[in-house]
Design goal:
By secondary structure, this protein is mainly beta. It has 2 domains: 199 residues, Nucleic acid-binding proteins (OB fold (Dihydrolipoamide Acetyltransferase, E2P), Beta Barrel); 45 residues, Ribosomal protein L2, domain 3 (Irregular). 4% of the residues lie in helices and 24% in strands. The chain has a 7-stranded antiparallel beta sheet, with no helix packed on it. A 4-stranded antiparallel beta sheet has the order 7-6-5-8, with no helix packed on it. A two-stranded antiparallel sheet has the order 1-2. The longest helix has 6 residues. It is globular, with a radius of gyration of 22 Å. It starts with a strand and ends with a strand.
Length: 274
């Protein structure tokens, strides 16, 4: 997808940068793969606000995405590339040979008419889902499982990808999007290629109203609050602050919150760069 800039005909258009959606081939979603989405406004079952800065936004319906890719050895044809309001990446509608329809996260370079496969018979082509034991070393992958059969949870956002660096016994050594290198069981599935819509991070909304359309309310800084509302609140004029911390007192800006006894520590080969 390419980006388009706008002439400054209004204040909101002046700095706006948007994607042109040229990759998309269908405007309406597949009805059988939709589910309702109810907005909470950040309130719990007592009606109390437990998450701040949520509320409003356009009504959306959830697209049921196949993260597991467990229909092994059944070829599927890509029928359309579509927009998904619930994620930064585009999605692809697959028609399987047995008649079933499913959505997957669309990788970069996947086109309408392409045939994709998953399982042991899959080839290392864009959109194919393979076990890490079968993926050639150095391949760029996304939608990676951490537990066999649980579904892909790593590298699902727009433009993200990981890379298979090596294999050691029952583990594959994968370099994550964060730069961390970690071991994952070779019986886990991953999809070949990088995620579509890589220029999403260059989009500039242009106005506050576009955040409201997405259900994001204005975020208030802690230092402008009163002491009763935030540890960094209070003070005369702009003399506020102290040590940066969250609303419930957890230090920020470099304070490590990861548990020292985390089970996955032994699987991490190299930490991400700071």
């Amino acid at each position: 997808m390419s980006l388009k800039k706008f002439k400054p005909t209004t204040p909101g258009q002046r700095h706006k940068v948007a994607t042109d959606f040229a990759e998309l081939t269908k405007a309406t979603p597949e009805k059988s793969l939709l589910a309702p989405m109810k907005k909470s406004g950040g309130r719990n079952n007592d009606g109390r606000m437990t998450m701040r800065y949520l509320g409003g936004g356009h009504k959306q319906r959830y697209r049921i995405i196949d993260f597991k890719r467990e229909k092994f050895d059944i070829p599927a044809t890509v029928k359309s590339i579509e927009y998904d309001p619930n994620r930064t990446a585009n999605i692809a509608l697959l028609f399987y040979a047995d008649g079933e329809k499913r959505y997957i996260i669309a990788p970069n370079g996947l086109k309408v008419g392409d045939v994709v496969l998953s399982g042991k018979t899959a080839l290392p082509n864009v959109g194919h889902a393979m076990f890490l034991s079968d993926v050639p070393l150095g391949t760029v992958i996304h939608n990676i499982e951490l537990k066999p059969g649980a579904g892909g949870i790593i590298a699902r956002g727009a433009g993200t990808y990981a890379q298979l660096n090596a294999r050691d016994g029952k583990y594959a050594i994968v370099k994550m999007p964060s730069g961390e290198t970690r071991m994952i069981l070779t019986t886990c599935l991953a999809t070949i290629g990088s995620v579509s819509n890589a220029e999403h991070n260059l989009v500039v909304s242009g106005k506050a109203g576009r955040s409201r359309w997405l259900g994001r309310r204005p975020r208030v800084r802690g230092v402008v609050m009163n002491p009763v509302d935030h540890p960094m609140g209070g003070g005369e004029g702009r003399n506020a602050g102290g040590h940066p911390r969250s609303r419930n007192g957890m230090p920020a800006k470099g304070f490590k919150t990861r548990s020292k006894t985390k089970y996955s520590d032994k699987l991490i080969v190299e930490r991400r760069k700071k």
